[in-house]
């Protein structure tokens, strides 16, 4: 009887083991075929889902409306640049203050410019002259009103007063000046003087940067007159010219010593008169001086 009972228990355990094994195999098969399920067959309605996210276009706390006072506080008026604003500005440039040495003598030469005004309209002062053997040989002063007609060109008109040579002379002046290229300065000024005398002065200077401090500057000046005036050293046509070359070193932007050479030449009736007097028609001069800017 005990054997019969034991066989019944063993048979029941075997049956339970078989059922558990079949159930595990079925679960594994369902897990393996999960990747082959058609997800598109079960569309999801995202619009009906309540995510409860705040709208990005409307902040939680509304911003106040911008007022004129807010704009003024955000963009206050700024002071103008020293050389590019409607404010009144000025500058003084002593372009040449130099000692000149040549064969028969020596001389002190100067050429300076000053201006006051804004970007469009300015008052210009020009002066140049020469002292030789302790005497003023040539001296003049010009007062010109300048009006800019483009970013690079300016028309000028005013008065020129010659103090030397002779008894001096007063001229009406008008012309143009500008910088068509970086470092290149050009001036062309016409004059109408006393006793129907006329004149034209052409000037050019080109500052070439060798380094940030060393600058080589060739210059050219020519003076032409409408009539002969021997007392004032004026001859019809081209009367005199000067070609120079100066090398300066800018210790600061406002102070630059230099050395150089210049060649001065007489033309026309002035050359004829110098030839008759036994003087040289041209002179090569050694230069040493400094340039100032305020």
Please give a structural write-up.
It is a single chain. The protein is α+β, with helices and mostly antiparallel strands. The protein has a domain at 89-293: Porin. 16% of the residues lie in helices and 50% in strands. It contains three helices and 13 strands; from the N terminus they run H-H-E-E-E-E-E-E-E-E-E-E-E-E-H-E. Strands 1-2-3-4-5-6-7-8-10-11-12-13 form a twelve-stranded antiparallel β-barrel. A hairpin with a 5-residue loop joins strand 11 (237-249) and strand 12.
Brief overview, please?
By secondary structure, the protein is α+β, with helices and mostly antiparallel strands. The protein contains 3 helices and 13 strands; from the N terminus they run ααββββββββββββαβ. It has a domain at 89-293: monomeric porin ompg (Porin, Beta Barrel), CATH 2.40.160.40.
Euclidean distance between termini CA atoms: 132 Å
Helical residue percent?
Answer: 10-25%
CATH homologous superfamily caption of the domain at 89-293: monomeric porin ompg
Number of helices: 3
Structural class by helix and strand composition: alpha+beta
Largest sheet: 12 strands, antiparallel, barrel
Q: Percent of residues in beta strands?
A: over 45%
What is the CATH T-level topology of the domain at 89-293?
Answer: Porin
Spans with pLDDT under 50 lasting ≥5 residues? 30-42
Shape annotation:
elongated
CATH class of the domain at 89-293: Mainly Beta
Strand order of the largest sheet: 1-2-3-4-5-6-7-8-10-11-12-13
Order of helices and strands: HHEEEEEEEEEEEEHE
CATH architecture of the domain at 89-293: Beta Barrel
Number of strands: 13
Mean pLDDT: 84
The value of Rg in angstroms is 46 Å
């Amino acid at each position: 009887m005990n054997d019969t009972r034991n066989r019944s228990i063993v048979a029941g355990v075997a049956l339970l083991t078989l059922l558990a094994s079949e159930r595990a195999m079925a679960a594994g098969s369902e897990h393996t075929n999960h990747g082959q399920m058609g997800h598109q067959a079960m569309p999801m309605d995202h619009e009906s889902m309540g995510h409860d996210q705040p709208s990005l276009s409307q902040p939680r706390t509304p911003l106040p409306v911008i007022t004129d006072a807010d704009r003024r506080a955000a963009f206050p008026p700024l002071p103008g640049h020293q050389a590019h604003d409607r404010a009144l500005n000025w500058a003084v440039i002593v372009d040449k203050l130099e000692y000149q040495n040549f064969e028969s003598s020596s001389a002190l030469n100067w050429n300076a410019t000053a201006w006051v005004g804004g970007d469009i309209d300015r008052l210009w002062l020009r002066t140049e002259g020469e002292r030789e053997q302790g005497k003023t040989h040539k001296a003049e002063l010009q007062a010109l009103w300048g009006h800019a007609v483009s970013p690079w060109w300016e028309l000028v008109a005013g008065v020129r007063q010659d103090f030397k040579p002779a008894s001096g002379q007063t001229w009406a002046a008008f012309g143009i000046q500008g910088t068509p290229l970086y470092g290149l300065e050009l001036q062309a000024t016409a004059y109408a003087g006393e006793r129907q005398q006329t004149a034209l002065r052409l000037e050019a200077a080109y500052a070439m940067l060798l380094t940030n401090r060393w600058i080589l500057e060739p210059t050219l000046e020519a003076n032409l007159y409408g009539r002969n005036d021997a007392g004032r050293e004026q001859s019809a046509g081209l009367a005199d010219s000067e070609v120079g070359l100066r090398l300066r070193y800018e210790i600061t932007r406002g102070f630059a010593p230099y050395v150089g050479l210049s060649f001065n030449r007489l033309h026309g009736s002035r050359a004829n008169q110098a030839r008759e007097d036994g003087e040289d028609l041209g002179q090569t001069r050694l230069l040493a001086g400094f340039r100032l800017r305020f």
